[in-house]
Amino acid sequence: MSGETPSDSQSIRYFKLRNRGAKTVHFLVKDAAGRRKVWDGGPRLVPGTEDVVDLSSIPRIQTGNSYRFGAYVRIGRNATDDHEHMVDFGSNTVGVFTWTNVDGSKVTFDGYERVE
After folding, report:
1. What is the residue-averaged pLDDT of the chain?
2. CA distance 56 to 60
């Protein structure tokens, strides 16, 4: 992982979610403003696990658009990162996010990884 921040503005194709909380979660994608749910689903992650989804395989996600990424826990407990990220299906970049529930439900952006 490179440790870069969202301000480095790399486009991503893959969404990695790490579950460092105490509940089972799955993937959540919202519009760039963070208001409207675009998609939730994918593998369910029990505490201490992680997985990756290919955003190009999700019909409602479009290349060239920006989204916010997070964790679906249950209504009222969902969380997304505070930054929008551009999606590019031609990219080999993974956006890495971690969900915790230490101080409430929270998702943080951890940086980028590359798929070789």
Report:
1. 91
2. 9
Domain spans of the chain, in order of start: 10-114
Counting as low any pLDDT under 70, the low residues of the chain are 1-8, 75-76
Cα–Cα distances (Å) from 66 to 32, 44, 54, 55, in that order, read 5, 24, 15, 12
The H or E element that residue 45 is part of is strand 37-45
Tokens read off for 98: 């971690």
Q: What topology is assigned to 10-114 in CATH?
A: Immunoglobulin-like (2.60.40)
First to last CA, the chain: 13
Given this model, what pLDDT does residue 8 score?
A: 61
Residues 6+ apart with CB under 8 A from 57: none
